[in-house]
Design goal:
Elements: E1 17-21, H1 26-31, H2 42-48, E2 69-73, H3 87-104, E3 108-112, H4 116-120, H5 122-125, E4 133-139, E5 142-147, H6 159-166
Parallel strand pairs: 1-2, 1-3, 3-5
Antiparallel strand pairs: 4-5
Length: 181
């Protein structure tokens, strides 16, 4: 079995927004950068939602903490698709993510994928269909914003709807600010 590289998190204490993906894709893992798929819309969305002051690409992922933004995944293991992930992957990943949230204390945890909600909130997640936007629950005082997955695999999700969802992060955005120390 070939061991794939693990993507580095990009974190710092007291982030404004921590973006949480499901797990890295194979291309992202091989290039060593988050959201590196050619059809992934993450970088365009964060710019057009005014969360960063300049257009960025996957090669700029390590710069996000300059603007109080962080990147991590629930599951560190890269796969061709989330279908390859196991319940154990999610259970372990959930515990690791909770430790990161408690340690770094982001103001907002932005979940990149509607399927993440029931993974992180198993009791809440079964009660109702989740919609993108600010949720009523928190994690260690961090607000939870649910966003559609920007992956090209989610291409059927209209871009303008995805951008509207990303714009719910505007109150915590950073473009009006200069780089953080």
């Amino acid at each position: 079995m070939t061991r794939r590289p693990v993507l580095s998190d990009h974190l710092r204490p007291e982030l404004r927004i921590l973006f949480v993906g499901i797990n890295p894709g194979l291309r992202s893992a091989s290039l060593g950068h988050h959201y590196a798929g050619p059809s992934n819309r993450f970088w365009k969305l964060i710019y057009e939602a005014n969360l960063v002051p300049e257009p960025l690409t996957y090669r700029d992922d390590a710069r996000l903490p300059e603007w109080g933004l962080g990147l991590t995944n629930v599951v560190a293991r890269a796969t061709a698709g989330m279908e390859s992930l196991t319940p154990r992957d999610y259970t372990t990943g959930r515990l690791v993510l909770m430790r990161k949230i408690r340690r770094y204390r982001p103001r907002v945890v932005a979940l990149l994928g509607l399927t993440l909600y029931p993974i992180l909130f198993p009791l809440e997640g079964k009660r109702a269909e989740r919609r993108p936007g600010l949720q009523t629950v928190t994690l260690y005082e961090s607000n939870i914003v649910l966003l559609p997955n920007p992956s090209g695999r989610n291409a059927s999700y209209p871009y303008h709807s995805m951008l509207d969802a990303f714009r719910t992060l505007t109150p915590w955005g950073t473009t009006a600010l200069t780089h953080l120390p």
